[in-house]
Amino acid sequence: MGVSFLSTAPSLLPLTATSTSATRCPTVSVTVRCSKLEAEAADGIQFRRRDILKCVGASVGLELIGSSGTFVQVASAADLIQRRQRSDFQSNIKGTLYEAIKANPDIIPSLLTLALNDAITYDKATKSGGPNGSIRFSSEISRPENKGLASALSLLEEAKKEIDSYSKGGPISYADLIQFAAESATKATFLASAILKCGGNVEKGNLLYTAYGSNGQWGLFDRNFGRSDTQELDPEGRVPQWEKATVQEMKDKFSAIGFGPRQVAVMSSFFGPDQMTTEALLATDKEVLPWVQKYQRSRETVSRTDYEVDLITTLTKLSSLGQQINYEAYTYAVPKVDITKLRL
After folding, report:
1. Phi then psi for 34, rounded to 5 degrees?
2. What is the distance in angstroms between the CA of the first residue and the CA of the last residue of the chain?
3. Residues of the chain by 3-state class (helix, strand, coil), percent to 5
4. pTM for this entry
5. What is the number of other CB atoms lying within 10 angstroms of the CB of residue 132?
6. Among 136, 119, 229, 263, which Cα is nearest to 179's?
7. Which pLDDT does position 192 carry in this prediction?
8. How far is CA 84 from CA 42, 132, 183, in A?
9. Quick one: which of 227, 236, 314 has its CA closest to 269?
10. How many Å apart are CA 260 and CA 256, to the nearest integer?
11. In which element (H, E) is residue 32 found?
12. pLDDT value, residue 334
């Protein structure tokens, strides 16, 4: 039984005989079968299936172009181009950070704390601070609460040189770089856990993380790409010394930025190099204890869903505190194409 190709064409495609010079194809009576093309025309012209597909494709394309306004065409095209530019640049950034972290896995805890300390300077009352890259300044990275983080910053400075060398839309901001390094570091810990669950088998661990992991939950985090660097230091006294802080001090600081005991518990890996020691301290607080237990149980499961998704959600909020995201950042001009001059 024959299958009509034209019966599957969108309704916007004129199926009756029309006079148009754009398609440059004679009007014929056509039946397209899976194994055979039959064409009957008054002048006896025989067409191959490829010829028919070309004509139909051209007609559909022209119909779509003609049905849209000029402004919509230009705006949509520009938006798609910018999205592609940002997506490609972001993918390259992640590749650079992945290689840097892979070569220096011991730096992961410091990268996490670096991102936390840069972001948690946010003050709701004055709407100042936040993940603005101020921690890059020597007089801020040398503060007591940032002790031991200089090596993480140095690694990112080297990564920045490489990233800026291939960027077509200007240098990456430290504000973006620090938070995206935290994303890459967090993903590295998730993947390492999957590999450990597979007895150290890297291939199986990668498969496990791909199948059950949270890699698809980073969409909103990735969209917040376009932070600006501040040119001033953030005020002192806004960041606790986590290794000396009490649980109450941690809760008070998180409460000041709109977070609660749940977020304190899920961010335990960001407070220092030893997550288990930090969680033991957090478990002494009756408000934080249930969340610590919840996330510890979650980490024992195959998917680790509760822990990983809540951590991603918290980091996403933390990494955008008080920031005006420029969604056109890192885009660049491309040669214009006059579609009226295209030869179809």
Report:
1. -60, -30
2. 33
3. 55, 5, 40
4. 0.77
5. 26
6. 119
7. 96
8. 48, 25, 21
9. 314
10. 9
11. strand 29-32
12. 81
Residue with tokens 């376009």: 226
Give residue 200's Cα distance to chain centre: 28
For residue 265, give Cα distances in angstroms to 9, 48, 167, 293.
55, 66, 37, 9
pLDDT tens track for 101-150 = 999 999 999 999 999 999 999 999 999 999 999 999 999 999 999 999 99
What's phi and psi for 70, nearest 5 deg? -60, -45
Closest CA to 318 of 208, 249, 204, 239: 239
Q: What are phi and psi of 31, to 5 degrees?
A: -130, 120
Instruction: Give the pair of three-digit tokens for residue 72.
Output: 């919509």
Query: 3-state class of 139 per DSSP?
Result: helix
| Joined tokens for residue 114 | 């670096």
Using DSSP's 3-state secondary structure scheme, residue 70 falls into: helix
- For 27-83, what is each residue's pLDDT tens digit? 444 444 434 434 444 444 454 555 555 555 555 454 544 555 544 445 566 789 999
